Every structure is written in structure tokens, then in C-alpha cells.
């Protein structure tokens, strides 16, 4: 684990927008250790527990999480 590990939570990545967000975060020097859901893996889900920051990718996901 590193000091700049983040997890990215979003929708299904149908339009590929999660890939663009991941690229931007990595260009900023952040290491994306997990991307949920869409094309994320079980291994990323486990790694996401160690992330220093969890980012919500889209409005719809934010609403679901805020209601939980």
C-alpha cells in the first residue's frame, strides 16, 4: 500500500467513462487500486479495503450510497 492509493466507485462503465477518470487520477499521481463495479475484479475489491480515499464516480452511485 502506498500513500496515494484510491478506490474508484461508479456504475457499469458502459461508455468507458470510468477508464477516462482512472487515467486522469493516475496522471495526477494517484494509484487506483480498485475500480467498482463495471470491469473491476475481485482482487481489486479486496485491494480497495486498503485505499486511503474512496471516490464516487457518478451521481447515481452517490445517491445509492448516501441513502444506505
UniProtKB/TrEMBL annotation:
Nitrogenase/oxidoreductase component domain boundaries: 3-67
One Pfam family linked to the record: Oxidored_nitro
A GO molecular-function descriptor: nitrogenase activity
SUPFAM superfamilies named in the record: Helical backbone' metal receptor (SSF53807)
Source taxon at top rank: Bacteria
Gene3D superfamilies, A to Z: Nitrogenase MoFe cofactor biosynthesis protein NifE, C-terminal (3.40.50.12380)
Record PANTHER family: NITROGENASE MOLYBDENUM-IRON PROTEIN ALPHA CHAIN
Name of protein: NifD
Species per Swiss-Prot/TrEMBL record: Westiellopsis ramosa HPS
UniProt lineage: Bacteria, Bacillati, Cyanobacteriota, Cyanophyceae, Nostocales
Gene designation: nifD
Amino acid at each position: 500500500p502506498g500513500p496515494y492509493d484510491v478506490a474508484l466507485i461508479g456504475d457499469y462503465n458502459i461508455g468507458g467513462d470510468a477508464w477516462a477518470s482512472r487515467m486522469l487520477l493516475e496522471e495526477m499521481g494517484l494509484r487506483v487500486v480498485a475500480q467498482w463495479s463495471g470491469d473491476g475484479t475481485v482482487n481489486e475489491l479486496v485491494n480497495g479495503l486498503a485505499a486511503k480515499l474512496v471516490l464516487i464516480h457518478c451521481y447515481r452511485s452517490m445517491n445509492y450510497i448516501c441513502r444506505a
